[in-house]
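Readers of this paper often ask what the protein records in our data store actually look like. Such a record has a labelled line for the sequence and another for the backbone structure tokens. Nothing more is needed to write down the fold, since each code stands for a local backbone conformation. The remainder of this section carries one protein's record, kept here as part of the documentation.
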Amino acid sequence: MTPRFHVGPVPGPGALIDLPPPATRHAQVLRLQPGDALCLFDGHGGQWRAELDAMGRKAARAHVLAHEPIERELPCAVTLALGMPANERMDTLVEKATELGVHAVQPLVCAHSVLRVAGERQKNGAPEELKHEAAIEPDGNELRATIERLARLVGQGRFVGSDVGLVLPAAAVRFHTLMVSEGGLRQPAESIQQALKWEIAREERSEPHDIEVRFWRLPRSPHARHNVMAVALSAEQARGWHGSFGEAGLRLSRLTIAPCALVWLALRGWPAAAGELWGALDLGARQATLSVVIGDVPIYVRGLSASAESWTQRLSEGLDVSPAEAEKLKRQHGVRAEASSAAEGEESLARVNYRLLRDRLEVLAQEIERCFSYVLGQYPDANPVRLALAGGGAQMPGLAEFLSARLGLPASVVAGVGGVDFGAEAASAVGGALLDVEGP
């Protein structure tokens, strides 16, 4: 494997750049020699193919060859909640977690934590201030790289505006359903929001000023236990996003979440009446999220156990092929519960795939049924009408047909706008833009 080094901004192909001290030490440990291949990244997107030009006792120089538009970041931000171990283990755990792509580490003081700070570590401020070298991100700052790349595109395109909307995955926020008195709901939105902050902070055992809260009212029902849905996220994180965009000359004018963005996009192609109940299922590579909606109001948002990646892994094991080949077979042939014709036979690849994935597909259908049943228990007069599918996993042939037959509801993939097809991230972005243009 070609060694990777984090460096400062790379001028371009042909440049000779000095490796920073940590990278130089790394190269010395690996006993690299001039002419050896390197991979450089500067946090501005992609990576640079290079070779070692010179190697000294205290310095090293690389010759940049070409840029490769390859992204190594995880598609979602992973936070590791870590019970505080002994001091000397903490640095190693942070270092290894960062190498694996963990976005943040949240130390937890547990009932049986044994933590002592003494001697040199106390003098140096550890573990309160973890060493920067232990926590530096191997692939740089993903968000900053994305923002700077976006700023370059805005500049190259000579856009008139600089407003940006950021769509967050469901896992990046917390959903809360609450009951607010009728008198409280008659207050100004800012007053309701402030009251919800206190209530949510109490539930999360945090401080009101540490969270940002947005909310919407749920439809009335004598059976509903809640009348408000709220979304909470870290205020510090939100300020950090605003600051990062501002440093790049952009203005973060809207924050929204993928479930709401996908619901809004689905409504563009199939408007729902006030009493109609439907679902928007986002089947991502590593997680799935179901939003149950009445009319145009999301009522219930829940993460499901299904994921496109787990299906691929199951096919890889069952067919004894590589994950890449299993992914190809999944996308090309999909699943089919019944033979489409007598000539097709029992051993068609779609049928084989279905037999391997049947248990997982059945679990998915059961989870969707439970979510619909939960909402129907609070809104018994609602009329279930359909299931909208989005995300990479939704593209598997035969999945929509299976869910339609299993749930007794029409299921279809969310269509593009104006005949344009797009993937999960683009669908969320389009939905977020529609919210900004046409939403309240």
Observations:
- Confidence is low (pLDDT under 50) at residues 116-140, 342-346, 417-422.
- The longest strand covers residues 47-55.
- The chain has 14 helices and 17 strands.
